[in-house]
Amino acid sequence: MTWTRGLGASWCCRKSRHALTAGAIVLCVACLAYGDEKASSPREEVSEAKRELARGLFREGVALLDAGRYAEALQCFQRAYVSWNSPKILLNIATSLRDLGQNAKAATTYARYLATVEPDNPRREEVARALEEISGDLGRIVSNDLRGATRLWLDDVEIAAVAGREIWVEPGSHV
Description:
Blueprint: E1 2-5, E2 10-14, E3 18-20, E4 32-33, H1 48-66, H2 70-83, H3 87-99, H4 103-116, H5 124-135, E5 139-142, E6 151-154, E7 157-160, E8 166-169, E9 172-174
Antiparallel strand pairs: 1-2, 2-4, 3-9, 5-8, 6-7
Helix pairs in contact: 1-2, 2-3, 3-4, 4-5
């Protein structure tokens, strides 16, 4: 394990290659970072204009999903989520990813949904079952003990540094 300086003046704990096997493998990722970026920002009030934009994109995404045009639906849902980070939109992103066979990304998004919604949400149990169904053949990384980290990198892709966040990965080698 080595410490390397990544982009944006952050220091990341990186292992040159780490083979993941099928099943839920929990790795503790510890990173130290400089800077004052927040790992996650609190939910901000969303303007009515942004909500309307998100609703339109959401409706378009649902129509595309129903038509089996999953990649296009995913793009609509992702654009909608940028405008309004609603758990309902996040759930549709996960569903689109699953329909596209991107199970690791879908599992990560399902886990994020479960972490976002209230404990009494009526869809919680259904989403937990969906996560369980697809996670059996995946590896799982949980970021713990971040000590002020703002950035993590996995396979040269930057991900938000959020303590306890689950990131699912396909079996194989990852950096």
